[in-house]
Structures are given as C-alpha cells and as structure tokens.
Design a protein that fits this description.
heterotetramer, A: 396 residues, alpha+beta, Butyryl-CoA Dehydrogenase, subunit A, domain 2, four-stranded mixed β-sheet, 9 strands, 46% helix, B: 367 residues, Butyryl-CoA Dehydrogenase, subunit A, domain 3, 3 domains, eight-stranded mixed β-sheet, two-stranded antiparallel sheet, 11 helices, globular, flavin adenine dinucleotide binding (chains A, C), oxidoreductase (chains A, C)
C-alpha cells in the first residue's frame, strides 16, 4: 500500500523548493480558473522537468503513475502552496481525448507537446446563439479533397490570444439530425482566415475570445475520431471537464481565506467579524456543505477506483461544487465589506510591486466573485446539470 | 457493502416489505396499542435488538454503519417500534465502559423483553446538557431525585428510564423503573404515530440506580448522543429518499394540463434538487458512521455536520414532496405526509440542529 | 374623514364585551383557516346581531358600509382578540358572487341566510385527478326538463360534514373546449344521491370531505350565471379567494406568537431562545419580509381604493403571504423544539378543561405547521401563482 | 404620484434616455475622466442637485420620495455622477439644523460647482459608528486630526470631505478640503465604473472646520445615514428592475433547443420570483421614504428594513439575471453584469446589511 503521508511530504518538499515567490504570488492573485499566463506556463515547465505536469495521465504518455489519492494530495498541496493553475485545455481535455480517439500519428506528435507546454491549446465549442444547446452549432467544415474548408465563429474561447492551437467542433453534415453531423477538428491558430477578437470580461480583464473562421483550410488528417462522430468525442470531453475537477480542494482554500478575512476585519464593537455569531454560523453552515461535497467526491472517487462509472453523479458534483464555491465568494464579500470596491488591476499582476488601495486579504475578492458567476454557466449550466440529473437519475 | 451488511439489508428489506405495508402501519399507529409486540419479537429474533452489542452481551458486534443501514430501512417504512430508543440510545449508555448496571438489564434489552429509553429533555427548554433542573441528592439509604422530564420518545412503552439529573453539580445518570414510587408517568401519542411520556418525580432510589456521574456520565452521554444523531439521521435519510421516490412516481402518473406532471421542467428541477440534497446527506451520514466505527478523531465533527445537514434537508425535501403532490399529500391515508411528520419529530430528538451547530463551531474553532 | 382611531376603539370595546372566554379559546386553539365549527357559527350570530357579520358587503345586502381601512382594522382587532374565524365559503365567496351573477330570486332568498348563518355553504370545485387544472373537471350535469341530473365527485370540500348547502362547478357541455362547457350550480346537500366521505387530514382531524353525486336532481333555477358560463363565474370567485385575504394580519399574529414562544423556551446557557443572536436574526429577517408584505398589501388596497385593479398582484400576495406564513410556522417549530411532538387532540377542543402533556404556548404549533402546508396548494398552488405572474405581468 | 413627481420623473427619463445610453456610459467609465462634467452641469441646471434642499438654499424642497424616484432612474441607467454622495448624503449633513457650515458651501454644492462626500469608513473595519480610530484634539489655533479613511465613494472627484473622527470621546464631523495640508488623497477607480479615494491624514484644521460634535453630530450622521440608505435602495431597485427587464427581453428572443428560453417553465418561475422580490422591495422603499418625509415614528425602522431586504434581493436578482442570460452577461459590453457590479458596490455603502439588521433588532426590541 502506498505511503500517502510520505508522498505528501515529498510533494510538499518539492513545492517548497520549486515555487518561486513570483509563482506563488501568481497563484495567490488568481481570480478565475486561470492564473497569470506566463506564470502558468513557467510552472508547467518546472513540473514537466519533474515528470509531474500531468498527474492524471498514464505513465506511457508521461504521467507520474499516481493513484487517485495521490493525485488528490498533489492537487491539494499545490493549492495550499499557492502554485499557479495549470491550463486545462491541453492536459485535462485534449490529452486524454487523443489517448482515446486519436490516431497513432496524433498521439505521438501532439501529446508530448501538450505535456511540455510547447503547444498551447484552446477550445472552440460554443458559438454565439448556441449556448447550452451545443448540437445546434453552425460552424461548417466542407470537405474539399484532403482538406476541410472551415467557416463560422466560436465564442468563449479561453486564452485563444495566448494559444497556438485550437480544437473545434464543426458541422460536417447538415442533412442529418443535429448531433449526427458534427466532427472534432484540430487546427493551428495562425492558419490564414482565422482571426481572434478578445472579449473584455465583467472584471475588466481579457480571458476569453471570439474566434472567426473564413475559408480556413485544415488537413483531413486533423480530424479526431471519425467524420460526423464528433458528438461522442465531445461528450466524453464534457465528462472530463465535469468530473475531472476536485471542487473540495478549491472550496477548502476559499474557506480558509474567508476565515482569514473575517479575522482581519473588525466588525461591530471592534471585534473580529469572525466572532459575530451570525456570520460564524453562516460560515459553519457553508463549511458543513463543503464537508458533504467532500464526502460525495470521495464516494465518486471510490466508485471510480472500484471500476464503476459515477455517471450523472458528476453532474451533481458540478452543480453543488460551483454553487457552493459561489456561496463562499459571497461570504468573502460579506466579510471584507467595502474593501471589495477598488478596481486596481495592476495589483493583480504578480510582478507589480507598488502600493495598492486595497489590503492584501481583499485584493482578489471582487474579481473572484465576478468571475466565478461563470462557474454555473460554462461546462454545462446549472440548469443543464439538473436536466441531466432529472433525466439520467430520476428518469423523468 | 460487505457480505454481512448485505445480508442484514436483505433481511430487513424482505421483512419490512412483507409485513410492514403502509396500511397495517397506519392501523397500528391509530390503534390504542403503541407498538406491535409481534414485530418487536420478530426484531429480537432477527437479532436487530442485539446488533450493536458485543458478543459478551449476546450481540452481533455491529457498528453504526450497520445500525444506519437498518435505520434507513426503518425510515422508509416508518417503523413505529423503538429500536433506536432502546437498542441504540439506551443500549449505548448501558454498555458504556464503566457504567454500573446489572447485566440482566442488557439481557432484557437484547431479548426485547424490556424497553429502555432516555429521559433527558426537560419542559420549556432545549436539550442543553449543562442546564438541567432535575437534581439528585444523597439521603439515608440512597438518593432522592426531583424534577420533570418531557417528550420522552417511546415513553409510553418504556420499562426503564435513563434519567439525567445534577448530582452535586455534576451530570449523573440513573436507571429508573417505570413503576418507581414517587414517579408519575403521563403517556400519550405523538404526531408521528408513536408514543411518548412526560415524567414528574420526587422519589427515593437505591444507590444501585446511579449508573454514572461526572466525567464518566458525560462521556457516556456524549457517545450516546453521537449514536442517537446518526441513527436518527439515517432514519431521516430513508424517509426523505422514500418521499422523493413517491413523488417521482406520483408525478409520472399524474396528468395535468394534458401532460404528466413529471414533464414540467420547473418540477423536474425541484426533484433534481431534492435528489442532490439527499445525496449530500447520504455522503455525510456514511462518512460519520464509518468515522465513529473507526474511532477517528473527526468522528464527532462529522456527526454534528450530518445532524445539521440532514435536519435542514429532511425538512425541505419532505415539504417539497407534499407541495409537488398537492392535496392528496395532506391526508392521513397517503404516505408522503407521514414522512414529513416523522422527520419533523426527529429534528429535535436527543439533539437539536441548533445545538449541533453550536457544538460544531466549538469543535472547529478548538482545532 | 373617518376617525379610524375611534373606530378601532369601538371595535375593541365590542369585542371585549362580546367574546366569551370559550369563543376566545376557540380562536386561540385554531390550527387551520377554520376554528371549531360551533364556535364559529356562534360568533357569526353575535356579529350578525350587531350588523358586522360581513364586513366586506355593501350596505344594501346587510354589510356595515365600512371602507377598506375599517375592514382591515376590524379584521386585525378580531385576530388580536382571538375571535374564532368566520367560515369563508358563504360570506367571502358565495355572497359576493351572487351579488354579481345571481338572479333576483337568488339574491333575496339566499344572501340573507348566508349572513345569518342559517345556511352553511361548502364549495365543490376540485375533483380527484383535476387539481390545479380546474378546466378538466368531470362531474356532469345533464339537462332533463327543468332539472339537471348531476353525477360525479368533488374533493377537498371543506366542512361539507357541517354544511346544508353546496355550490359546485359542473360540466354541462362536453363537446366544446374544456373551459366553455362548465356551469355553476347550487344544491341542498341532503338531496337524494349525495353522499359525504370525510377525509382525515395529516393532523388527524377531519376538515375536508369527498362528496359523491349519483343521479342528483337539481332544479335549473339553481344555476348561477348562464349555462356553460360557469368558468367566468368561477374565475371571479378564485379572485375573491386570492385577493380577499389580509395575510399581514395573520402573519403579525404569528410573529407575536413566535416571540412569545422564544421568550418562554430556555435555550443554550439557560437564556431565553429569543436572546440567541442567530434565532433573533432569523426572526428579524422574517419580520422584515412581513413588513414588505404589509406594505405591498397596502399598495394593493390603495390601488383598489383608487378604483384600480391589482390584477396579478393578488397572485404575488397569495404566493408571498402563504410562503411567509409557512416560514413563521417553521420558526415556531424551531422555537418550541420538542414540545411540538405530543398528539393530544382533546387539547384543541375549546371546551376541554383537563391537563395536557404540552404547554399552552405550543398546543397548536405542530397542527398549524402541518395544516398550513396546504396554504400553498389550495386556492391556486404556489406554482400556479407563478404561472400567472409569468403570463400576466411578465408576458412570458 | 403627484404632478411635480410626474414632471421630475418625465424629465429624468427623457434626459437619461436621450443622453445616457449604455455605450456612452461605458466609454465614460473606461475613460480617464471619472465623471462627465457635461452631465453634471445638466443635472445642476435641471435642479437635480438642489432637489432636497429648502428654498432658503435655492432648493426645490423635495423629500426622499422624489430623491428615490430620481435614484431609481439613475439605477436603471447606471449613472456615474455622484448625486447621491454629494446632494443627498453630504447635503443632508450640511443642511442639518445646527450644523455649522458657511452657506457658500451649500451654494457650491447646489450649483454643482463643488462636490462633497462623506469620509467615514476606515480600513479593516465595517462602518460601525462607535469604533472610529480617526481622532481629533484641540491644539493652539484649531484642531489636529489624525487617521485613515478608505473606499470613499466619489472620492476621486470630491472637493470637500465630511470627515468623521472622535473628539474627546465623542463623534465629530469636520469639513476638509481635498487640498488640506497634511492630507493625502489616493484616488482610484472602482469595479462599478465610478471613482473612490482613500485618505491618510495628520493635519491641523481651523476651528471653523468642525461642523458638529456629540449628540448633534450623531443625529446629523444618523439622519444622513437614513437618506443614504434609501437613496441607495432606490438606486438598487432601479438596477434590479432593469436587470429583470433585460432578462425578460433576452429570454424572449433567445432560442435554445428549438424554443425561446422564455417558454421554459423553470425559467419562467425564476423570473416570476425575481419580480415578486422586486415588488416587495418597491413596497418597502416607498413606505420608508414616505415615512421619512412625514417624520413618522417608524421611519427609521422601515428604512433599516428596506436596507436589509433590498440588499439581499438586489444581490440575488442580479445574480439570477446573469445566470439566465448565460455567457453574454459575463462580458463588459453587455449591460446586465454592470447592474450586478453596481448593486454589489451599493451593498456596503454607508451602511452594511449586517449593521442595518442589528440596528433593526435593537429598535424592535426597544419598542
């Protein structure tokens, strides 16, 4: 049996030695699922050198060969040590998908470059006007000899401005049921005919883009899976996206942060806000929800480990994890009060060294609150998760 | 689930399905009897009343995990017999290491011959352990104890009460027979179809009736409370799962405005929310039971968390079950309202949600 | 301008003089919208002698001629003085409906007997299998000369066991759209072919019945409104039912009750539960909701008084009033804790004088909690109210 | 609504519709200017900056009802200019009976020539009036005041700060020009597209800068707070109503799974709930304004109730508006997220929900 305590110590020592103060600052200043881009990539390169860049990957593809508990410990320690996040589109999404559906050529050419960070991938799924109804997508890829000619647009493409590659769902057949005519296609992002429009988010920053395709020629060898079979490829990816995340780790971090904030803010009577019985009770109730979520994630992990398929339970965890995380955002907002108001984006740059109008403990609070509203929208909205539960578990 | 647990579950499901249909249960609840001696004997014969006791007491040595399995089934069938009160709660005190009690009592409990119940709650108070009015003092040949206890679950069928009182400023536990001189027992029914009693006492007891005092009494009490919380939580889990299942079935069959109710998205989302909340409870109750059985450090904190979460969820889920049914659910002849009444009674049994939350915060901040 | 303070005093003095201890006990022991039947009728006779039995009726029909504020004051004072409730089916529902749709004969014969309490009316609307979908009702009335022959069944008929009259919605034409073939019919309840099955409610008491009709012959003169025009008659009644109630009065009473309960119960540390900051805060939040509801009711009253039609706002008030009232039930349950458990129906009889196992302040708590779950079901479910708001106000 | 109110509302709606479209507002918020002097001048010319002042100050003598009408429109259009901060809040203090201030200040405020704002909040605290760190003491030619203030709304465009500090253990109010010696003003933008400032000071002021102290200061402060609460509540009401209207429009147009979003019952019920909650807020805000204008005994209690209710509702409604829109609402170029940011900033402005609730309880229990 694996000695998990020893493993945790090993991870902790590695993080201690490898995380520079700038990287830790980047982790601390993270206000969404993405950290500062350069910091993320720098951290990925460090992890890659150690063989730890893709904790979930099998050893044959360069994974560390960890079991499910080791992966959890690793994630948890990274979070506690304020490591920047690793960009998910390559390692979490495309990598596993290519292992399952990719050709040999795709596996040998693409997967190593995902791991090393030589390629940065972004995801082209959503379209303006499609939203939760992915099957209604309109971007077309017409076969023309050994190429597809791609026309259309994708939206909410995170980090497209930093990426050199994009994977897309495209319509290759209009004459069948919506879901039957979709294919999964890989592209270089600098192909002629691709343009990228950054989208300013509500927090004032750019994380997402709209990508336009005008007569873009893509070799047919860039297809993943069979032509018109992109829907099943995509669905498996949605499941990675939904089930691959350990919400508890993030939420425990949030809990610690709120406690810290509520200790630093003086409430009525000059006593720490944490001693206010009403606030303390709300925090305890949220903590109990977090414990319930944690135990549910452990149940799912146990079921995975026993070879089971948690199925729609991952929808449950997605719904609860995102909503609970939003609840912690609100507790943070309640705790720090007026300190959420300053808009001082310079202070979110890990390299900034000047004075800020907002105290350390509240620097990211408002941006996190704003950005995390998306958590119940992307990767299947809260409503879609409930539809899935109603259909697949309750059979309604 | 291991093989023993599967066997226990199978036998419980079989027995309850075959003998414990809703209408028979309802007739029993409406009768002048409080419980069915036939069922009680059957429970004893199947070993259910011996479950958590060690082999030295003729028990099966099962832990809270197995108690919870059975309690969950009891919740689904709204079982009226006081397995939790006698076996789990009283049993936990009687067998707590160091508690002074004659082994004949444990034999009587395990065989189902006698029923035991905790008499702790006092009128006009919540169940705070530190503010008892009942008090005891040493007298010539024993102890004199004076006070009132109220809303003792299973009290109308109880043979021996485990009475809490202050003795020289400390918590003390007494074993008191129902016919003790100086004890008045007022028996009545409860809204969840069970029985209860109030006690008024001003009585002299032999010294042997003092089972524990001070730190021992306190730790026996707290251990008992953990088990009561988890037994009740598991029962509530069964009741709310059954309430959801009933609701899902009903909305599939019931047609309104030309479509089955189950096809209305607003109702689908509400049933999905019920399921989500039930599953979260299930995770916490399971984890708390395993932690308690393993003697883990975090067992009590998980137990209190389970109490808080299950109490709110069971209330909400059974209310929703009634709402999604409509009028039919407000009648005595339909099962779903009985789940609502049962989980309401469980809310405050032995430990209130509020007490659990305060203790949870205390434990969390002390860590 | 009316001197409302003087009016309030007059009402208060009358109540002081007229409410016997038994009547007040009946009011106190009320656990649903209905008080003890005999007490309600006794109180109605006393009010009738004073000319106050039907506060909302115009003077020509024997109403007291009060304005909207006087009626509110009267209701409020009755509630505060623990008067038993007056049964709504005659005075609140059928009376105003006959004034609007009744024939002269119906007006002169029926209305005075409603007022005096000589007739006790019950309502036959819902049917098993119909629920919120009233238009799908199946009870038929076939024309046969100067009679209708009625067959079918009605459910949730409150107090049928105490009534001598019933008004029903019946289907008089099956060949048209469901809503178009409905008529509104009055019947004596002792007609041959009518049988009454009491329904035991979840609180163990009987308040509602199922009524069966087998070849019941009803004179056509008992029709209210035109044949097949029962839907518009019924709809106006639903509006009386929805808008006629002042939820704030009941809720303020509940608020006072919870405060009293929380003062009497000792919580942690032996201090009154009301001093527990978490409970106190929950109660304050509920009180603020009650204030918002009160001000909304006043807005509607103002709009009524100005000749406006509050329309779907009455759905809003019904939804909020019933749900808030349920919230106060829960606060009561939280306040009294274990004292909710004893089932002791004798204690709810105003004439009972023995000992009860449950303290005064908690006698009705559990029964109220149980019975009030129906508040969001009858008179248009909470869901139907939201459908109405979505359709009529939001135009969705 | 009376004729004067209708005229005010009409002119506000007209002006804002014609000149304050979302894109111009967004450009202004993203520019290096904090507010539009053109708008500010227009506000002054239309008398909006004079609204609540008596005729002796060249004002219109309007009450909170009229301020609320205008604030609600400001909320719908996300107006950036600090009418609430300067006219309503600072103006309330400057014109409070007994407060010592030169009338030229009021002229400057009413004409829009100068902007005034409250500097009360301190770093690392909530806005508790009884726990100020800033303090003043008498010195040779006046007073020396020392301390820090933070997150002063409109602070970057403010000419005069109304600074709270303790003087000999009592609350005192000072009027401090932005360029006072010993005062450091740190100006910055806020997430809701407006400006703010932090102050650090260790300065000597003439005795004339002390406007009020002790009971007078306290009652001027509390009156100001009532007005700030209701102005902010009305603005939040406008913002959440606009958020709902936008959501209703959007779901009518947006097709998913072959149907408009607005036809999904689950979404209809959620929008109905938004409407219900908004209407409840509207009732409370209206009642509180009328009570304040009439000097009713229950005015403060209604005001605090409005604060509590509006704060929770505005948060929930604008969150729902984003959720029902989906991705589009998380972008800077779409209006609905800006309502969310604005009501979030209003939550803690001058008075937090928590403070309002505690004071509400205090008033209720004292009655």
């Amino acid at each position: 049996m694996t000695d998990y305590a020893a493993f945790r110590l090993e991870v902790r020592q590695f993080l201690e030695a490898s995380l520079t103060p700038e990287l830790r600052r980047a982790g601390k200043l993270t206000t969404s699922v993405f950290s500062d881009f350069e910091s993320s990539m720098a951290w990925q390169r460090i992890l890659h050198a150690k063989g730890w860049a893709a904790p979930d990957w099998p050893e044959e593809y360069g994974g560390p060969g960890w079991d499910i508990h080791q992966r959890y410990i690793f994630q948890e320690e990274c979070k506690l040590a304020n490591a920047p996040s690793i960009i998910a589109m390559g390692i979490q999404m495309l990598g596993p998908l290519l292992m399952k559906y990719g050709t040999e050529a795709q596996k040998t050419e693409i997967i190593p470059r995902i791991l090393s960070g030589d390629d940065v991938w972004c995801q082209g799924y959503s379209e303006p006007g499609a939203g939760s109804d992915l099957a209604s997508l309109k971007t077309t890829a017409e076969r023309d000899g050994d190429h597809y000619r791609v026309n259309g647009t994708k939206i909410w493409t995170s980090l497209a401005q930093h990426s050199n590659k994009i994977f897309c769902l495209v319509r290759t057949n209009k004459d069948v049921k919506p879901q039957a005519g979709i294919s999964f296609l890989l592209m270089d992002i600098d192909l002629p005919g691709i343009t990228i429009d950054p989208i300013v988010s509500l927090d004032g920053q750019v994380e997402q883009c709209q990508v336009f395709f005008e007569d873009v020629e893509v070799p047919v060898t860039n297809l993943v899976g069979d032509e018109n079979d992109g829907w099943s490829v995509a669905k498996s990816l949605l499941e990675f996206e939904r089930g691959g995340h350990n919400f508890t780790i993030d939420i425990k971090k949030q809990l610690g942060k709120v406690r810290d904030q509520a200790l630093r803010i003086r409430g009525r009577g000059g006593r720490p806000k944490l001693e206010d019985p009403v606030f303390r009770t709300q925090l305890a109730e949220a903590e109990i929800e977090a414990m319930a979520l944690e135990q549910t994630e452990l149940r799912i992990k146990g079921s995975f480990a026993a070879g089971g398929n948690p199925g729609a339970l991952s929808s449950l965890v997605k719904a609860v994890g995102t909503e609970l995380s939003q609840q912690f955002n609100e507790l943070s907002v309640d705790a720090v009060g007026r300190a959420i108001t300053p808009y001082f984006p310079e202070g979110l740059d890990p390299h900034f060294e000047g004075e800020t109008p907002v105290p350390d403990y509240a620097t990211t609070t408002m941006a996190e609150y704003i950005n995390n509203r998306s958590a119940t929208i992307y990767g299947g909205t809260a409503e879609v998760q409930r539809n899935i539960i109603a259909k697949q578990i309750l059979k309604l | 689930m291991n093989e023993e647990q599967q066997m226990l579950l199978d036998s419980a499901q079989r027995y309850l399905r075959d003998t414990y249909d809703f209408n028979s249960r309802r007739d029993m609840a409406n009768s002048e009897q409080y419980i069915s001696t036939t069922h009680w004997q059957a429970f004893a014969e199947m070993g259910w009343l011996a479950m958590p006791f060690g082999e030295q007491h003729g028990g099966l040595g099962f832990g809270m995990e197995e108690v919870a399995l059975l309690s969950e089934e009891f919740g689904k069938h709204l079982v009226l017999e006081p397995m939790l009160e006698s076996t789990v709660v009283a049993g936990s005190v009687l067998t707590y290491p160091g508690v002074a009690v004659e082994s004949s009592h444990i034999d009587a409990l395990v065989s189902g011959e006698k029923i035991y119940a905790l008499a702790h709650q006092e009128p006009d108070t919540t169940a705070d352990i530190d503010n008892l009015s009942a008090h005891a003092q040493h007298v010539a040949n024993g102890l004199k104890i004076t006070g009132n206890k109220a809303y003792i679950s299973a009290g109308a069928v109880t043979d021996y009460f485990i009475v809490t009182a202050k003795l020289e400023g400390q918590l003390a536990l007494f074993l008191v027979p129902k016919d003790a001189e100086g004890l008045t027992v007022t028996r009545y029914k409860t809204y969840d179809g069970r029985s209860a009693a109030n006690l008024a006492f001003d009585m002299e007891l032999p010294f042997s009736s003092l089972m524990a005092r001070g730190d021992l009494a306190r730790s026996a009490f707290m251990t008992m409370r953990d088990r009561a919380i988890l037994g009740a939580s598991a029962e509530a889990l069964g009741a709310m799962q059954a309430a959801l299942d009933t609701t899902v079935d009903y909305t599939r069959q019931r047609v309104q405005f030309g479509k089955p109710l189950s096809s209305f998205q607003a109702l689908q989302h509400r049933m999905a929310n019920m399921l989500i909340q039930i599953e979260l409870c299930r995770s916490l109750v399971g984890a708390a039971c395993r932690a308690l059985d393993a003697g883990s450090e975090d067992a009590r904190r998980l137990t209190l968390a389970a109490k808080v979460k299950v109490t709110s969820t069971a209330r909400k889920v059974t209310q929703e079950a009634i709402q999604l049914h409509g009028g039919i659910a407000t009648t005595d002849e339909y099962v779903v309202g009985h789940y609502f009444k049962r989980v309401t009674a469980l809310e405050s049994w032995v430990c209130s949600r509020e007490d659990a939350l305060v203790d949870f915060i205390r434990l969390t901040d002390a860590a």
